[in-house]
Amino acid sequence: MNTAISSLGASTSAASRVVQLSFAALLGVFIVGFAGFSQMDVVHNAAHDYRHSMAFPCH
Amino acid sequence: MTIFRNVVFVAALTGLLAGIVMAAMQTYATVPLIKKAETFENAGGGHDHAATDPATGTEAAAPHSHDAGTPAHEHDGEAWAPADGFERLAYTVLANIVTAIGFALVLVAVSEILGGIASWRQGIFWGFAGFAVFTLAPGLGLPPELPAMPAADLGGRQIWWTATVIATAVGLGLIAFRSGVVWSLVGVALIVAPHIVGAPQPVSHDSPIPADLHHQYVVAATVTNLIFWVVLGGVAGAIRSRVARSAGSLRDSFA
User: Fold this and answer.
1) How far is B96 from chain A (nearest CA, A)?
2) Is residue B192 assigned to a domain?
3) B227: how many CB neighbours lie within 10 A of its CB?
4) Which structural domain, as residue segments, surrounds residue B241?
5) Hey, is the C-beta of A58 within 8 angstroms of any chain B C-beta?
6) DSSP H stretches of helix in B30-85
7) Interchain contact A14–B (C-beta under 8 A)
8) What confidence score (pLDDT) does residue A45 get?
9) Which end of chain B is more exposed for a tag (fewer CB within 10 A), N or C?
10) Cα–Cα dist B247/B254, whole Å
11) Domain range summary for chain A, segments of one domain joined by +
């Protein structure tokens, strides 16, 4: 239960920890997915050079 | 939501910094090559002389920098696109910062579940892992592409890319965080599997882009990504260890 001594937010329960961390990771995945994979033309054109530079398969 | 808030804080700072570094590297390393490739792409429309001759096209076209105003490619009837110059650069910088924060969120949250990044040095190793997962593994099957290059069906490539990222991440995780040879073997198998399946490839690799320009681009994109991930991991480790220290000493106020 209490392995959180040196972690960010020491006094939270293990279950709540995992939920919050999973939520943070999902948020990150959503951001990357939207910027890298979104089919909207506007997003594609705005992030065009970025997507090419990151080698996202996008068009 | 203490942990969530701290992770977002660390990721936002880390992503801001790594995104700016990445945008600066792209401006000098990859974007000039993309713009050069676009002159070949536009040449497909028919007003350029270099690429039309298939026999000499690759040889003759490569060294020239077509400075004759070719980049004016406002496609009528298409969706909004940033104007060349400052606007285009600004959106590239923005995309870099936003996605760097996204990558940082994933990196910090996952590493936190597995015990947390203890220092900037450990962070650099996490960065190497991120590079392997998001650049190296998918890049083996789907190398960085320039505009005007042929590619297979988009949906298939996105599925392969995503599956490869997940398999490589899980594989590395099993090797690093599970004891026992069996888990390591499973990890290696997971990392190798997507490449046995193989990435979707175009019917023909014939392209107006000279091979040496593409090669230059693959190297530039891969190396800039490597530096990006090392910076992302290192900075995340440095900031995280500071936040964790203050969170430890100020435990009550964070609770």
Assistant:
1) 7
2) no
3) 16
4) 2-63+77-151+202-254
5) yes
6) 31-43, 57-61
7) no
8) 87
9) C
10) 6
11) 26-59
B234 located within any domain:
yes
Which position has the token pair 């090419």?
A52
Q: Does residue B185 lie in a domain region?
A: no
At A14-40, the pLDDT tens digits run 888 899 999 999 999 999 998 888 888
Q: From residue B26, give the alpha-carbon distance in Å to each of A41, B38, B70, B159, B224.
A: 22, 16, 21, 26, 7
Length of chain A: 59
Task: Give the whole-angstrom CA distance, residue A22 versus residue B3.
Answer: 11
Answer whether A8 touches B (CB < 8 Å).
yes
Test the B interface: residue of A6, A53, A56 with most B CBs within 10 Å: A53
Nearest to A24 among B8, B158, B225 (CB): B8
What was the ipTM of the complex prediction? 0.83
Cβ contact B105–A41 (<8 Å): no
**Which amino acid, one-letter code, is at B227?**
I
List CB contacts of B234: < 8 A, sequence separation 6 or more.
Answer: B120, B121, B123, B124, B127
Kindly state whether residue B195 falls inside one of the protein's structural domains: no
Which tens digits make up the pLDDT trace of B73-114? Answer: 444 456 788 888 888 899 999 999 999 999 999 999 999 999
| Interchain pair A54, B113: CB under 8 A | no
Name the domain count of chain B: 1
Cα dihedral angle (A40, A45, A48, A49), rounded to 10 degrees? -160
DSSP state of A55: T
